[in-house]
Design a protein that fits this description.
Distance between the termini: 21 Å
Structural class: alpha/beta
Length: 320
């Protein structure tokens, strides 16, 4: 039988800027909760940035649940390793993981003649790098700047070579700077989006693998994982290469989130995946910003401890 709530609820969620994947996921949750709740229930989705603003909003009680990207960075915060240092970070709980197969990747115009970070450091070219704000909220920016530091080219070093950082917020702000010739290199995520394909169609790019030392430093400091970029992800690759894992959206709540609502959210995510998948099926799974088909075992696998009600549902259905 379909899992339903027995009392009216009001639920505030936080998604993205309002036009991307996090808002779509919130819309799915809100629609299904509305259908499974008594009359008088209310649901709202606040605009957000998918970064530490989601953490703050949940811990401060401004919203009851929010989506955070990438899922693995939540472990960094939960374990007190950095990014967002709060004494109450241990109150964070997960409701689910929504899959997105993504990487943080560095690419530079091939005309610079560099194919590795060692060559980049040796040649010291003056290049314009498009990446995200390192403002403590944008996780692509936080990850990018830490990887630049671990790779021996922090912003100050790049600028000492005569280079320049060009900063933005979202994929449509950043990657097209290279396509239009306003930047020479990019360090960003959302590698499945058309912005990367347009860039590669407009100019030949060299993709630089992160060095083992830099990836080990990221793992040791922040518990971040390395992940392979497949050889068919970008044109002209001679084979797969190593990048930083930037996968998955984590649905967050606080440790006092009601068990019955957590249980129903877990149920609707596992029982009605077609409602979200149908919005992406015109895109091949490899290129989709939500990796479908949605699999319950993947939904139940989270980077921080589960909320009790969600965990109960997943265990009852042998997804854990």
């Amino acid at each position: 039988m379909e899992v339903r709530l027995e009392h009216p609820i009001t639920l505030h969620m936080m998604g993205d800027w309002g036009i991307a994947n996090l808002h779509r996921i919130c819309g799915w949750i809100g629609a299904e909760l509305w259908r499974r709740s008594p009359a008088g229930s209310k649901f709202a989705t606040w605009a957000g940035r998918g970064g530490t603003d989601a953490i703050t909003a949940v811990l401060d009680g401004e919203v009851q649940t929010a989506l955070f990207v990438p899922a693995g960075f939540a472990r960094t915060i939960f374990e007190g390793r950095g990014i967002c240092r709060r004494g109450d970070a241990g109150r964070l709980r997960a409701l689910a993981t929504l899959p997105q197969d993504d990487r943080l990747v560095f690419a530079i115009d091939a005309s610079f003649g560099v194919a590795s970070f060692a060559e980049l450091r040796a040649k010291r070219p003056a290049f314009r790098l498009a990446t995200a704000f390192d403002d403590g909220i944008n996780m692509a920016g936080f990850g990018a700047h830490r990887m630049l530091e671990a790779s021996g080219i922090p912003p100050a070093t790049l600028e000492s070579w005569g280079g320049k950082l060009l900063l933005g917020e979202a994929p449509w702000d950043i990657v097209p700077l290279v396509t239009r010739g306003e930047a020479d290199a990019v360090l960003f995520e959302a590698v499945m989006t058309p912005y990367w394909r347009d860039m590669c169609a407009s100019r030949k790019m060299n993709f630089l693998p992160f060095e083992d030392q830099a990836l080990r430093e990221a793992e040791s400091k922040f518990a971040w994982r390395r992940a392979e970029v497949a050889a068919d992800r970008f044109p002209g690759l001679s084979g797969p290469f190593q990048a930083l894992d930037f996968s998955d959206f984590l649905l967050l709540c606080r440790d006092d989130f009601p068990d019955d609502i957590a249980y129903v959210i877990a149920a609707l995510l596992c029982e009605t995946p077609e409602l979200l998948e149908s919005q992406y099926r015109h895109i091949p799974p490899k290129d989709s910003p939500v990796t479908y088909p949605l699999q319950p075992r993947k939904i139940a696998a989270t980077s921080i401890p589960l909320a009790a009600g969600a965990e109960r549902y997943y265990r009852q259905h042998n997804y854990l």
